[in-house]
């Protein structure tokens, strides 16, 4: 099969753009010019084969996780996906829940291995972001709770050495299927893969029964979906406020539970104009007045 | 056309009975149901065909119609079609065409980084049935009474509106003249607007007024005479500015003005300088000391009045106050007309050669006048159906324009947004590239318009995300056909010119 090759490009602002099939990465490293060059070369080299490796193991990665022993995988990205999703196997989950974050983590890891002295680094895989900050560096990320209102609602402030390595967002409007009705759940965790999987689960938990919410079997939309016949959300109309609050409460409980296990460091949940913040220590997520 | 055939390349194969297509574009090998896209959102199953979701058809149409795009370039006007740097190019709506029906995505939805932010610019041409021009003519010359009809070839195309400081204002076009009157009125109005917007000269005649040739950025020509200066201020203001410079060289100054005629010694400026009264009383209605309204009728004479003999505005000279040898200056507010007189033994003003010191101040009035110019602002409402080419939820575009999140440009020129409902914009037509405007026979004007906003917000506000094309791709595909213009250095965005 003669597939389209991975695409590599420089973006303005000293950023690197890598794209292959559904993977679309925007990368920015900061540090000494030689370090940045070395890191970008490492990212480009590693990116050559990533999609092929994942595709080879797709059938395994689409299987739900269960039991006492995680499945074996030869690919580092697949291993990251499995590791990130394994703690959540009490509910239905497949390693695909962490695919975007795991790719971001893998690229971030090879870049840091090539240039450990980088001051800051982010690898943004379609909104699931691996971040690395040296001590003393601070990265502030704007959060737009309701994009349609086009105003900045919050900030995530990350300091070097804080243990934060990833940020991910999930919701029913996104590219991946969601079981819930959250417009967006943004999770901060130790890695992008961990944040990715957790955001998926918290977004699934932001849910309520209402006859106006349209759902369809995942397989009826995508015949190869790892979710099979599970109903996924296809349309959410404006709901009465008590239902929105109930859905957010359910999602907040799940986020609180994950916070307790240490799997996430903070989460922001948004549903129909309302939002909740769950975080262990103050000062990570800032709502803006 | 190679780009287009590339874009249309089919990588798919039918599979099964459900209309599913397997996409072979990448190793994921997505199986895509009809009406849905693959994991990458770049390929979709449209009625059993695997298609690229990029705006192929729209791009193709722009090429087939031989239209030219105008990416602005910082680089060079004689660009060879290959060297244009995507980071220094901006695709304007000029020649972009428009899509119909309205719900179809705009012809070009371009992604680009501006100032470190990933943005999307929705590029289209709008058909504006509600549009017109506001013309500001810098002259105190009377052009016609307020609300008087303005005509071209006998058809009414607008009216005289409220004058501004030093300027006469015309309002031309608008929906009532474009489509509310006869077909001829509409066509003449459309043609007038098109010419003015594209920088051509148009002769307008004003009922009970005068003929004026208007051309954006050029001096007005009133009844065949080119205006040179915009008045320095009204007559009273002129007295106030120059009183001290006249002190010791004159006994009285009358500044003739259609609005407020100033009389120096009676004016506060003269009194504070302890200038003795001269007993001269001018015609008109006294407003405050030394300031007179309506000394004459509006006209083509001195200071925008109908006066050609300036002494005619003197109502009387009080013999108990005036004295033989009294020195009197009469001037217009531009210094273009001035007369020096000395009172004879009978207290009658006799013209004489103007002393050098006084001439210097008259000259200074002229120096302080700005050049008389016509400015043409295109004004239109973009709050209608064209918004559907930007987003599926048009009111979100309106709101985001109103709160400043979305930047509106016309042909790359900055648009002023009128506050309140809708998207009512004004733009200085000289800031756009040449011939940026067109028309449709409706009649209505066609103008380029670009909406630029952060990509994330565009995606979230119901934008046509599947149509987003990187600016580099647009340039690659249309380089050879595009018209490249240097960005107007007057415009603050998208390219800031240092220094």
Description:
The complex is a heterodimer of chains A (289) and B (499). Chain A is of the alpha+beta class and 289 residues long. Chain A contains 7 helices and 14 strands. In chain A, the strands form 3 sheets. Chain A has a 9-stranded antiparallel sheet with strand order 1-2-3-4-5-8-9-12-13. Chain A has a 3-stranded antiparallel sheet with strand order 6-7-14, with no helix packed on it. In chain A, strands 10-11 form a two-stranded antiparallel ribbon. In chain A, a hairpin with a 2-residue loop joins β12 and β13 (274-279). In chain A, α4 (99-114) packs antiparallel against α5 and α5 packs antiparallel against α7. The model of chain A has no long low-confidence stretch (mean pLDDT 89). Chain B has 499 residues and is α+β, with helices and mostly antiparallel strands. Chain B is 17% helix and 33% strand. Chain B is built from 10 helices and 35 strands. In chain B, the strands form 7 sheets. In chain B, strands 17-16-15-14-11-12-13-10-27-31-30 form an 11-stranded antiparallel sheet. In chain B, a hairpin with a 6-residue loop joins β15 and β16. The longest helix of chain B has 15 residues, at 183-197. Chain B is elongated. The relative contact order of chain B is 0.16. The chains are: A alpha+beta (289), B alpha+beta (499). At the A-B interface, α1 of A face β3, α8 and α9 of B.
Helix/strand layout:
The complex is a heterodimer of chains A (289) and B (499).
Chain A: E1 7-11, E2 15-20, E3 23-30, H1 33-56, H2 58-61, H3 76-85, H4 99-114, E4 120-125, E5 128-133, E6 138-143, E7 154-159, E8 166-170, E9 184-189, H5 192-205, E10 214-217, H6 218-221, E11 231-235, H7 241-261, E12 266-271, E13 274-279, E14 285-287
Antiparallel strand pairs in A: 1-2, 2-3, 3-4, 4-5, 5-8, 6-7, 7-14, 8-9, 9-12, 10-11, 12-13
Chain B: H1 2-7, E1 12-15, E2 20-23, E3 31-32, E4 43-46, E5 49-52, H2 56-64, E6 71-73, E7 89-91, E8 108-114, E9 117-128, E10 131-137, E11 149-152, E12 155-164, E13 167-173, H3 175-178, H4 183-197, E14 202-206, E15 211-214, E16 221-222, E17 225-226, H5 235-246, E18 252-256, E19 260-263, H6 268-272, E20 280-282, E21 285-288, E22 291-293, E23 314-317, E24 327-332, E25 338-343, E26 349-351, H7 356-367, E27 374-381, H8 394-402, E28 407-410, E29 413-414, E30 416-418, E31 424-428, E32 438-440, E33 444-454, H9 455-460, E34 468-470, H10 471-478, E35 485-486
Parallel strand pairs in B: 6-35, 8-34, 18-24
Antiparallel strand pairs in B: 1-2, 2-3, 4-5, 6-7, 8-9, 9-33, 10-13, 10-27, 11-12, 11-14, 12-13, 14-15, 15-16, 16-17, 18-19, 19-22, 20-23, 21-22, 24-25, 25-26, 27-31, 28-29, 28-33, 30-31, 32-33
């Amino acid at each position: 099969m003669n597939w389209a090759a991975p695409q590599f490009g420089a973006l303005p602002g000293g950023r690197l753009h890598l794209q292959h099939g559904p993977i679309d990465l925007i990368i920015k490293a900061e540090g000494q010019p030689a370090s940045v060059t070395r890191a970008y070369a490492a990212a480009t080299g590693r990116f050559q084969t990533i999609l092929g490796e994942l595709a080879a193991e797709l059938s395994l990665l689409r299987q739900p996780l269960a039991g006492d022993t995680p499945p074996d995988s030869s690919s580092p990205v697949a291993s990251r996906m499995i590791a990130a999703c394994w703690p959540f196997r009490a509910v239905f989950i497949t390693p695909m829940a962490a695919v975007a974050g795991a790719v971001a983590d893998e690229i971030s890891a090879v870049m840091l291995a090539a240039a450990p002295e980088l001051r800051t680094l982010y690898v943004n895989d379609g909104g699931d972001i691996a971040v690395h900050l040296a001590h003393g560096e601070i990265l502030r990320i704007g959060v737009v709770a309701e994009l349609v209102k086009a105003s900045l609602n919050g900030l995530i402030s990350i300091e070097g050495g804080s243990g934060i390595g990833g940020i991910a967002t999930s919701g029913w409007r996104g590219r991946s299927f969601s079981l819930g009705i959250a417009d967006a759940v943004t999770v901060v965790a130790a890695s992008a893969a961990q944040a990715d999987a957790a955001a998926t689960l918290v977004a699934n938990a932001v849910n309520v029964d209402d006859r106006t919410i349209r759902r369809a079997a995942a397989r009826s939309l995508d015949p190869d979906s790892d979710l099979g016949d599970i109903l996924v959300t296809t349309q959410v109309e404006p709901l009465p406020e008590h239902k929105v609050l109930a859905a957010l409460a359910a999602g907040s409980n799940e986020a609180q539970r994950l916070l307790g296990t240490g799997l996430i460091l903070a989460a922001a949940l948004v549903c129909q104009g309302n939002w909740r913040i769950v975080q262990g220590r103050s000062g990570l997520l800032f709502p803006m007045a | 056309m190679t780009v287009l055939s590339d874009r249309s390349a089919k990588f798919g194969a039918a599979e099964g009975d459900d209309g599913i297509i397997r996409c072979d574009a990448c190793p994921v090998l997505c199986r895509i149901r009809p009406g849905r896209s693959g994991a990458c959102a770049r390929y979709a199953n449209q009625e059993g065909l695997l298609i690229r979701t990029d705006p192929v058809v729209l791009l193709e149409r722009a090429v087939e119609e031989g239209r030219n795009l105008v990416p602005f370039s910082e680089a060079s006007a004689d660009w060879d079609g290959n060297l244009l740097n995507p980071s220094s190019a901006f695709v304007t709506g000029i020649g972009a065409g428009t899509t119909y029906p309205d719900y179809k995505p705009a012809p070009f939805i371009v992604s680009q980084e501006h100032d470190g932010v990933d943005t999307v610019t929705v590029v289209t041409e709008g058909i504006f049935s509600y549009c017109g021009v506001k013309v500001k003519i810098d002259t105190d010359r009377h052009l016609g009474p307020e609300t008087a009809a303005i005509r071209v070839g006998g058809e009414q195309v607008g009216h005289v509106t409220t004058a501004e400081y030093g300027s006469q204002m015309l309002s031309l076009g608008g929906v009532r003249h474009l489509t509310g009157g006869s077909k001829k009125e509409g066509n003449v109005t459309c043609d007038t607007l098109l010419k003015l917007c594209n920088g051509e000269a148009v002769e307008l005649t004003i009922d009970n007024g005068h003929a004026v040739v208007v051309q954006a950025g050029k001096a007005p020509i009133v009844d065949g005479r080119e205006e040179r200066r915009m008045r320095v201020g009204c007559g009273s203001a002129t007295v106030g500015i120059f009183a001290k410079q006249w002190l010791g060289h004159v006994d009285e100054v009358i500044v003739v003005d259609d609005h407020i005629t100033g009389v120096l010694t009676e004016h506060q400026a003269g009194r504070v300088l302890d200038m003795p009264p001269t007993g001269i009383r001018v015609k008109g209605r006294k407003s405050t000391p030394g300031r007179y309204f309506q000394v004459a009728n509006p006209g083509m004479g001195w200071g925008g009045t109908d006066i050609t003999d300036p002494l005619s505005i003197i109502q009387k000279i009080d013999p108990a106050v005036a004295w033989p040898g009294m020195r009197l200056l009469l001037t217009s507010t531009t210094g273009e007309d001035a007369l020096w007189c000395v009172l004879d033994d009978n207290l009658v003003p006799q013209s004489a050669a103007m002393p050098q010191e006084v001439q210097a101040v008259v000259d200074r009035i002229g120096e302080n006048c700005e050049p008389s110019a016509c400015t043409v602002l295109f004004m239109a409402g973009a709050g209608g159906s064209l918004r559907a080419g930007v987003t599926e939820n048009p009111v979100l575009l309106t709101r985001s324009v109103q709160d400043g999140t979305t930047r509106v440009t016309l042909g790359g020129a900055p648009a002023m947004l009128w506050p309140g409902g809708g998207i009512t914009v004004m733009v200085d037509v000289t800031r756009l590239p040449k011939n940026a405007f067109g028309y449709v026979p409706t009649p209505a004007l066609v103008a380029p318009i670009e909406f630029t906003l952060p990509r994330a917000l565009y995606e979230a506000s119901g934008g046509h995300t599947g149509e987003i094309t990187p600016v580099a791709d647009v340039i690659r595909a249309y380089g050879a056909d595009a018209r490249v213009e240097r960005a107007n250095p007057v415009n603050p965005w998208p390219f800031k010119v240092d220094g």
